[in-house]
Amino acid sequence: MHTDILSPKELFQKDVQYTIPPFQRPYVWNQDDQWEPLWEDVRSVAETYLEELERSGHDEIEAEQRTSPHFLGAVVLKQVPTAARDIDQREVIDGQQRVTTLQLLLDAIQQVCEDAEQRFLKIASRRLSRLVTNDELVVGNEDHHVFKLWPTRSDREAFRHAMDNGLPVDDFEESLIVQAHEFFKLQVEKWMEDGSASMEDKIGALEAAVSTMLQMVVIDLSPKDDPSLIFETLNARGTPLEQSDLIRNFVVSQSEGREGDTWGSLDDRWWREEARQGRLLRPRLDMVLNYWLAMRIGSEISPSRVFDAFRGYVSEKDLNFVMCAVKDDLASYREYETKEGRNADEKLFYYRTNVLQARVITPVLLLLLGIEPMTAIRTLDVLESFLIRRMICRQTTKDYNRMVQELTGRIQESGLDRADEVAAGFLKEQTAYSREWPTDESVAHALETAPLYRLLTRGRLRLVLEGIEAWLRAKSMSEQPDTPRYLTIEHLMPVGWRKESWPLPQNGDEEVEIYHRNTLVHTIGNLTLVTQKLNSSLSNSPWVQKRGGLREHSVLLLNSELMSESEWNEDTIRFRSRRMADIVCEVWPGPEKVK
Questions:
Q1: In this structure, are strands 488-491 and 527-530 parallel, antiparallel, or unpaired?
Q2: How many helices and strands (H and E) does the chain possess?
Q3: What is the mean pLDDT of residues 536-550?
Q4: Phi, psi (5° rounding) for residue 18?
Q5: Largest pairwise CA distance in the chain
Q6: Of all residues in the chain, what percent are helix, strand and coil, respectively (each to 5)?
Q7: How distant, in Å, are the alpha carbons of 22, 277, 288, 480 from that of 291?
């Protein structure tokens, strides 16, 4: 092992190719966190150099000596055995994001110079090209060897098009590789145009900054060192890697160097996007692998222990077989997620559980995505009923993780072809408050008495009202079977009611009547769905005007049922709440009705 402090010029000027091994993550740096700060550092160094150049009477050597270098961090390389006639190669074990970004920055500057007309810029372009490409006479038959850097498979085509000035990037606009290259190119062009220094001095300062005044600690490992072990150890002492990165490293290192399809499409950007898991935001791949392992192992796994759990799970299994299962299951999940459900029933389930933020059921979902569709749908209906009834009754979610693991294990033990029966039986037998499946009586009581408008989020309350509207449309064989979504919730009797427009019941204690009314006004019987525009126009109007507005502008069956009501008061609210409770219990049947 050899350690040295090197500049980009010292690292890249020789004929060599640095490859990003397959166990490394794809390119993930972005403008806010990395590109812009790097550019600001480079520009600062270049502008300091310009100041020193002027002070020294244009003595370039003295200006460079007086300009403090900027430290970029560490890079760990591993020597790769090559034949005598082949180009030297190194694997980038750590620092691949940094090295890739440097190459993109250098090439962006080179392209700006190449596209210019001035001779001094053309000469600078040729000097800079030696830092991003190898001599074509020594690269052999492998055309990609012309690049100093060769990234992971998922980034290669985007990298090739970004770095080759003659290739278009139109098909790779979503690639962070291409976006970084374009960002640096635009920054260089703008910087070259601004300021009082001559363009020749400015390109000299920029070239000096990026080629000799950036520094890295470079650790060069011998071929005998284990890259996966060093990679894991290094990152365990710094910013932690994502769990999926550690799993990728382990999988590829155990595959005897065969890249193939070991990891497949799990490297692409969609899997790296953040998704919410409870209170955490995690890369989607980490989250789903967490749930996949929980499904396979049958126990809850801490997000920080996913890699350890995976390594333990595969310790006595065929790794290729496990990875085939991972990719198949995750491909099904991706199809479900990107299409927001693969059929009408799944789409409705996706929408409702997304409103509920019920990712906790993902281990069961991963099981169901691979089984016979009707059995899967019946199982999803059972889960949806359980979740929504507990939501309406405002019951705790604290034990859901453990309960889902037990349910997943029960389904796998009993056979996937009986998943719906097993799920219904399992949920029916739960008696603890943290797990019980609310009965019709409990649901009806909550709907008739609880001020749900204040207890539930607008999205969750809207979900219940939409479910009632969908049931009404199905029963009436409506010509418009699809229920509109994302309407606003309207109070039929306004929250800000006034006695003049909404008289209180007579012959009662006024304070008591006000109390009861203010309690009922937020129950489901007093709520409906309308457009935002209609909501604003109805406002605190008396019932006659509200009913007229609903008759004229609303097509919902939820509202057409109100047209026969000559007045709207406490009795009609209670009656409608009972009616809506009956419908809710039909839409989401409980333990009494589910077989």
A1: antiparallel
A2: 27, 10
A3: 84
A4: -100, 120
A5: 105
A6: 60, 10, 30
A7: 24, 10, 5, 38
Q: Are 370 and 328 within 8 A, CB to CB?
A: yes
Cβ–Cβ under 8 Å, residues 396 and 433: yes
The pLDDT tens digits of the residues spanning 221-242 come to: 877 766 556 555 555 544 456 8
3-state secondary structure of 166: coil
Residue 236 has a pLDDT of: 53
Q: Who contacts 186 (Cβ-Cβ below 8 Å, separation ≥6)?
A: none
pLDDT in tens, 425-458: 999 999 987 899 999 999 999 999 988 887 788 8
Of residues 74, 95, 129, the one with CA closest to residue 27:
95
The helix/strand/coil state of 216 is: strand
Question: Which residues, 6+ apart, have CB-to-CB distance to 246 below 8 Å?
Answer: 232, 307
Instruction: Count CB atoms within 10 A of the CB of residue 565.
Output: 14
Residue type, 213: M
Alpha-carbon distance of 301 to 363, in angstroms, equals: 11
In 3D space, the residue among 38, 32, 35 whose CA is nearest the CA of residue 180 turns out to be: 35
Max mean pLDDT among 4-18, 257-271, 426-440, 572-586 falls in 572-586
The C-alpha atoms of residue 421 and residue 141 are separated, in whole angstroms, by: 61
Distances (CA, A) of 47 to 38, 397, 444, 554: 14, 57, 72, 65
71 phi, psi to nearest 5 deg = -85, 125
Spell out a b/e string for 281-293, using b for 16 or more CB atoms within 10 Å of the CB, else e: ebbbbbbbbbbbb
Note the helical H segments in 27-95. 36-55, 60-66
pLDDT on residue 379: 96
Q: pLDDT confidence of 293, banded at 50, 70, 90?
A: very high
pLDDT in tens, 151-199: 998 899 999 999 998 888 878 888 999 999 988 998 898 888 877 788 9
Is residue 531 exposed (0-12), middle (13-18) or buried (19+ Cβ within 10 Å)?
middle
Q: CB neighbours of 61 closer than 8 A, spacing ≥ 6?
A: none
